[in-house]
Automatic annotation (TrEMBL):
<dbReference type="InterPro" id="IPR047641">
    <property type="entry name" value="ABC_transpr_MalK/UgpC-like"/>
</dbReference>
<dbReference type="InterPro" id="IPR008995">
    <property type="entry name" value="Mo/tungstate-bd_C_term_dom"/>
</dbReference>
<keyword id="KW-0067">ATP-binding</keyword>
<dbReference type="Pfam" id="PF00005">
    <property type="entry name" value="ABC_tran"/>
</dbReference>
<dbReference type="InterPro" id="IPR003439">
    <property type="entry name" value="ABC_transporter-like_ATP-bd"/>
</dbReference>
<dbReference type="GO" id="GO:0015408">
    <property type="term" value="F:ABC-type ferric iron transporter activity"/>
</dbReference>
<dbReference type="GO" id="GO:0055052">
    <property type="term" value="C:ATP-binding cassette (ABC) transporter complex, substrate-binding subunit-containing"/>
</dbReference>
<dbReference type="InterPro" id="IPR027417">
    <property type="entry name" value="P-loop_NTPase"/>
</dbReference>
<dbReference type="GO" id="GO:0016887">
    <property type="term" value="F:ATP hydrolysis activity"/>
</dbReference>
<keyword id="KW-1003">Cell membrane</keyword>
<keyword id="KW-0472">Membrane</keyword>
<keyword id="KW-0813">Transport</keyword>
<keyword id="KW-0547">Nucleotide-binding</keyword>
<protein>
    <submittedName>
        <fullName>Unannotated protein</fullName>
    </submittedName>
</protein>
<feature type="domain" description="ABC transporter">
    <location>
        <begin position="4"/>
        <end position="234"/>
    </location>
</feature>
<dbReference type="InterPro" id="IPR003593">
    <property type="entry name" value="AAA+_ATPase"/>
</dbReference>
<dbReference type="GO" id="GO:0005524">
    <property type="term" value="F:ATP binding"/>
</dbReference>
Length: 354
């Protein structure tokens, strides 16, 4: 399989720099998710990897082969788009066979690949159905099957779940996770949905304003965001930010009304402008203790996995904390909280983690 090597890749549309001087390697045989808000350049970057757009400057290599100006059909790629690309008026089986007909394969090999792909996607029972009989989640599975049956070196997914009915979404995501774990191809997957990225990625390449700001496995990018943007974009809710009016610096120590202990920031202390704390890093208790800070519950909402999110108020400072259902606190109640120093992330004036 191929690494995808981007060297100073830039794409401009008139005055707009959609992709701005990206040098980056997408590692072979793994799932790299290009994640970022609408308009950050992820689709443009993928379209250049596909050969559907030509960079304004810079080069794209598959391993060490320069493909910058190689047409799409000679790049040995599979592609899956937002809307399933399938042939209506034909069966599922025929849809899976069609891309294989130009591959000079024996009838036996074609049949084997169709059956293997259908098995992998859990649609063996649908092979003889017409595509019109199926929901759009299953149709997207057929589009995935068509892309992988040819066994290309690289498979590109452009928001394949976005336009699928809510009921079929979860099943399709589960199926893609299973398929990705069994494929050895280099997979690039575009989405603006951080939950999808956290579920499917081996590594997330987070994009903002045409550049990749951080690339790391999901757990690492979540726990160690290199910027306020990464801390805000990843997670539901995003990271709590404690702004400078709630921070005091004394020598190398940082204090805040959120924690009782002083956090040592060493020689960087004077550069610290904002602190970041994840909602689950705030330990909430119903009883007082010497090291705990007092807060009031001002809002309670249902979080994921049967947990609750509490909006807590420490004077004028407000943060969100994730708590177990059993905690049983209500709006207006008092609670006591503690935080481990190592769970606090420090950011400088530019929003960069230090
Ligand atoms: P979305 O999730 O909304 O698709 P994205 O991160 O994929 O966003 P792109 O589609 O790559 O972003 O677009 C990046 C920027 O380039 C946007 O401002 C978009 O309007 C602009 N753009 C993309 N394609 C073209 C084009 N063909 N002509 C002009 N501007 C374009």
């Amino acid at each position: 399989m191929y690494d995808i090597n981007l060297k100073n890749v830039t794409k401009g549309f008139g005055n707009l720099q959609a992709v701005n001087d990206i040098t980056f390697t997408i590692p072979k045989s793994s799932v790299t998710v290009l994640l970022g808000p609408s308009g950050c350049g992820k689709t443009t970057l993928m379209r250049m990897i596909a050969g559907l757009e030509t960079p304004t400057s810079g080069s794209i290599f598959f391993d060490d082969i320069d493909v910058t100006r190689v047409p799409t059909k000679r790049r040995n790629l599979g592609m899956v788009f937002q809307y399933p690309v399938i042939y209506r008026g034909t069966s599922v089986k025929r849809n899976l066979e069609l891309p294989l007909l130009s591959e000079k394969l024996s009838a036996g090999e074609i049949s084997k690949r169709v059956n293997d792909v259908a098995d992998l996607l859990g649609i063996s029972g649908d092979l003889n159905k017409m595509v019109e009989e199926l929901d759009n989640g299953t149709r997207q599975k057929i589009a995935v099957g068509r892309a992988i049956a040819r066994q290309p070196q690289i498979i590109l997914f452009d928001e394949p779940i976005t336009n699928i009915d809510i009921t079929a979404k979860l099943e399709l995501k589960r199926s893609l996770k299973e398929v990705f774990s069994r494929l050895s191809q280099t997979i690039v997957y575009v989405t603006h949905d951080q939950t999808e990225a956290m579920t499917l990625a081996d590594q997330i390449a987070l994009m903002q304003d045409g550049v990749i700001t951080q690339c790391a496995p999901p757990k690492e990018i979540y726990e160690k965001p290199k910027s306020q943007f990464a801390g805000w974009f990843l997670g539901n809710p995003g990271i709590n930010f404690i702004e400078k009016e709630h921070i005091s610096v004394a020598g190398s120590g940082i204090n805040s009304s959120l924690f009782s202990q002083t956090i040592d920031a060493g020689s960087h202390a004077s550069q610290v402008k904002v602190l970041g704390v994840r909602a689950e890093a705030i330990e909430v208790k119903t009883t007082q203790s010497p090291e705990a800070r007092s807060a009031r519950v001002v809002r309670k909402s249902l979080g994921i996995g049967g947990q609750y999110l509490l909006d807590l108020e420490y004077g004028s400072l407000k943060v969100k904390a994730r708590v177990a259902h059993q905690l049983g606190r209500e709006i207006g109640d008092q609670v006591w909280t503690t935080i481990t120093s190592s769970d606090v992330i420090m950011f400088n004036e530019a929003g960069v983690a230090i």
